[in-house]
Amino acid sequence: MRCLIQRVSSADVKVDGETVGEIGPGLMILICAMQGDEEAQAAQLAKKAVNLRIFADENGKMNRSLLDIGGEALVVSQFTLAADTSRGNRPGFSSAAPPAEGEALYERFADLVAEYGVTVAKGRFGADMKVTLTNDGPITIWLET
Length: 145
What we know:
It is a single chain. The protein has helices at 39-51, 66-69, 99-115; strands spanning 2-15, 18-23, 26-32, 55-56, 62-64, 72-77, 119-122, 129-144. By secondary structure, it is an alpha/beta fold. The strands form 2 sheets. Strands 1, 2, 3, 6, 7 and 8 form a 6-stranded mixed beta sheet that branches. Strands 4-5 form a two-stranded antiparallel sheet. Strand 1 (2-15) and strand 2 (18-23) form a beta hairpin. Helix 1 crosses helix 3 (99-115). It is globular. The N and C termini lie close together (6 Å). The relative contact order is 0.31.
């Protein structure tokens, strides 16, 4: 699995003009299941995401995690994280998990993050989504299993 994590002051996702998920301070997590991924990869990424120390402590050092600050997470599926741009200018996405598997792992990842006690908002799998966020820092981190 692959994910792109952004530390945010706030974020929301809309589908057809309707807000389907929104958060305050926390993490915007764009997630993509890859071919061959299983629940173990979702669990590994969820644990890493909630424990990643990218929030400032009392001395301004990035020393606190999402769990430490009581932050929220907005989890949005994004198969384009599987883009292969090694040949030509049109990305290929054949390394992404098939839609049914991708959706199941996306939902499982969001559930696993919530099991840590994090309030989780989600996008809508497969939908044309409009995501708005205020990147705090900016802090953007790439994770993959």
